[in-house]
TrEMBL record:
The lineage of its organism: Bacteria, Bacillati, Bacillota, Clostridia, Peptostreptococcales. The chain crosses the membrane at residues 15-35, 41-60. It comes from the Bacteria. This is Uncharacterized protein. Keywords: Membrane, Transmembrane, Transmembrane helix.
């Protein structure tokens, strides 16, 4: 499934789409963190979302290294 996404969309476009998603999600979570600071559930939901986006970035960095190594071969 991952190879299908990357080959049909293209790796650069895939990273661009994911980066925009992370940027929008980060802005929303920052606003929610400041405006609903006293609501623990909202803070937990957006905190878990931030952890997921961080793991996604780590995954994409490893995927990019693999992609660049394949490109050089």
């Amino acid at each position: 499934m991952k190879e299908w996404i990357i080959t049909n969309i293209g790796f650069e476009k895939f990273i661009l789409i994911y980066s925009y998603f992370v940027l929008i999600y980060s802005l929303i979570s920052l606003c929610a963190y400041f405006f609903y600071y006293d609501n623990l559930i909202i803070r937990l939901v957006f905190g878990i979302g931030q952890i997921i986006t961080l793991l996604g970035y780590i995954y994409l960095e490893n995927l990019e290294k693999h992609y660049n190594n394949k490109k050089l071969e």
